[in-house]
Design a protein that fits this description.
Number of helices: 11
CATH superfamily of one domain: FAD/NAD(P)-binding domain
Distance between the termini: 33 Å
CATH architecture of one domain: 3-Layer(bba) Sandwich
Number of strands: 19
Structural class: alpha/beta
Helix content: 25-40%
Radius of gyration: 21 Å
């Protein structure tokens, strides 16, 4: 016999926990299946724009977020070649805390999952989904510690597993992007500044996060990564990427030289940015499972949480799952399609030295273009409010 729920959410990250929390608060019986134990580190830029503060308050985690997160990010920059171009970050109007901040995923994910549990969601952790069945809708689970098996059934299945789907694996390609992440101590990065690092074959970002750490995250093409490792065979992959950034982006050297990597590098990939689907084979998709922006615009966490809210809105507005599916799909495209396309343009620009060289003088003459670029990518974009 299966344990029966109104909804089973696969994945306890920001997208899954937000969806589950809002559904549970509305009276649904909800289960969250998460394979990893929290707290856990993730390859992630950690920045959360100010546009999410109303949602964080509705979820009940805003005060904790503001207490833990790093300083407000009031300026944005491009570090490319030997140029450092700095501009103001747009401010969210009508908000006391009008700028975004960064918080490590080991803290943010734990806050959201605990809040979902407090709202009534049942947490299966660490459990892995071994099989998904459409008719009747159910999932089979395996416990990661005891290997015990069980089955959950539900009227609604939500896939919030992130972007790592074995079914989507493709043949290796030179243009594949791999993500790298490290926390730095003793970095000279100016507090409140979030620069985009543009370098041949990749791009990255830095921001002051929680507990005095600076988060450095970047994406590197497969061919660039292989070349960097050949040039420095004694270094780890993360160290080779750092060496490549220092060698090709002299503007970043003052902030990186002398910095100490805390707890080593993490890597993931290849990542697959782009539009996917919001519903497949009877399962709602949310977060990176539905679509992923290039991390160059630092909107991944924002999009995940906002998508979770959008899906919860759609499911709670009607008992007809087809109507909910269509409403969620339309809202998802409205909220995220433009951001994903904008991020792709910026990412491909940052990875191409010739394109960077041509446009740097223009950016230097008109730095406000960076402010408008941040606005366009969603830093202060109004999002729909929870409708319940």
């Amino acid at each position: 016999m299966a344990d029966v729920f109104d909804a089973v959410v696969i994945g306890g990250g920001p997208a899954g926990s937000t969806t589950a929390l809002l559904l549970a608060r509305a009276g649904w019986s909800v289960a969250i299946v998460e394979r990893a134990m929290f707290p856990r580190r993730k390859v992630c830029g950690e920045f959360l724009s100010a546009a999410n503060l109303p949602l964080l308050r509705h979820l009940g985690v805003a005060d904790d977020f503001l207490d833990l997160a790093g300083p407000e990010v009031k300026r944005v920059a491009v570090f490319a070649r030997d140029r450092r171009i700095v501009a103001d970050m747009p401010r969210l109007r009508g908000e006391k805390h009008g700028w975004g901040r960064a918080l490590g995923r080991e803290h943010l994910d734990t806050l959201l999952l605990e809040r979902a549990a407090r709202a009534g969601a049942v947490i299966f952790q660490p459990w892995t989904v071994s099989r998904v069945q459409k008719h009747p809708a159910c999932v089979q689970l395996v416990c990661g510690t005891t290997r015990r098996e069980m089955e959950l059934s539900a009227r609604v299945l939500v896939d919030a597993h992130g972007s790592w789907d074995p079914a989507d694996r493709r043949r290796p390609h030179a243009a594949d992007l791999f993500g790298f992440k490290a926390h730095l101590r003793e970095s000279a990065l100016t507090p409140g500044l979030m620069p985009l690092l543009a370098f041949p074959g990749g791009y990255g970002g830095m921001v002051h996060s929680d507990h005095g750490r600076v988060s450095l995250s970047c994406c590197v093409r497969r061919d660039t990564l292989e070349q960097s490792r050949r040039l420095a065979p004694s270094l780890s992959a993360g160290e080779a990427v750092m060496a490549h950034i220092l060698a090709t982006c002299s503007a970043a050297r003052p902030a990186l030289r002398g910095a100490v990597v805390e707890s080593g590098w993490r890597s993931a990939g290849p990542i697959q940015p782009g539009l996917r689907a919001t519903h497949r084979n009877g399962v709602f998709l949310v977060g990176n499972a539905a679509g992923e922006a290039h991390p160059v615009v630092a909107e991944g966490i924002s999009m995940a949480m906002q998508a979770g809210m959008s899906l919860a809105n759609a499911l709670l507005s009607t008992e007809d799952l087809r109507q909910a599916r269509d409403a969620y799909a339309a809202d998802w495209r409205r909220l995220f399609a433009w951001r994903i396309r904008t991020a792709a343009v910026i990412a491909h620009w940052a990875m191409r030295p010739a394109a960077v060289a041509v446009t740097l003088p223009l950016l230097g003459a008109f730095p406000r273009m960076l402010t408008e670029g941040a606005r366009t990518s969603g830093k202060v974009a109004a999002i729909c409010s929870p409708s319940f």
